[in-house]
Amino acid sequence: QVQLVESGGGLVQAGGSLRLSCVVSGTIFSINGMGWYRQAPGKQRESVATITSGGGLTNYADSVKGRFTISRDNAKNTVYLQMNSLKPEDTAVYYCNANVLLYSYHPGGFDYWGQGTQVTVSS
């Protein structure tokens, strides 16, 4: 059974930093793209940052460009989100996503989600 487990959330003052981690566990063949998403109360889930399988291409929401950095360690099946210069509007539950190939031939893979980790930024 594939699981994504996030860690690193918490309470931080505005201007501070946090580093989120997400580990993919279970029997898999490989991991394609990975990403971080967030959902604030009363709002829809939105994409924060994504990264390709080799880590060569990244994409960020305009609201976090220059402040957040996504990276991955394929040897550890882990994706990270370094969040600097945090703002109160970054407060949300952050979710990890991974497109996983369960077999060598698995067209399209399957999307898995973590349980979410709360990030709260106080003003």
Give the helix/strand layout.
Elements: E1 3-7, E2 10-13, E3 18-25, E4 30-39, E5 46-51, E6 58-60, E7 68-73, E8 78-83, E9 92-101, E10 110-113, E11 117-122
Parallel strand pairs: 2-11
Antiparallel strand pairs: 1-3, 3-8, 4-5, 4-9, 5-6, 7-8, 9-10, 9-11
Attribute tags:
about 120 residues, 4-stranded antiparallel sheet, about 55% strand, mainly beta, 7-stranded mixed sheet, about 0% helix, elongated
Write structural notes for this entry.
The protein is an all-beta fold and about 120 residues long. Helices cover about 0% and strands about 55% of the residues. It has strands at about 5, 10-15, 20-25, 30-40, 45-50, 60, 70-75, 80-85, 90-100, 110-115, 115-120. The mean pLDDT is about 95.
Describe what is shown at a glance.
The chain is mainly beta and 123 residues long.
Tell me the distance between the termini: 40 Å
Largest sheet: 7 strands, mixed
Average of pLDDT: 96
Helical residues, percent? under 10%
Task: Specify Rg, calculated over alpha carbons.
Answer: 14 Å
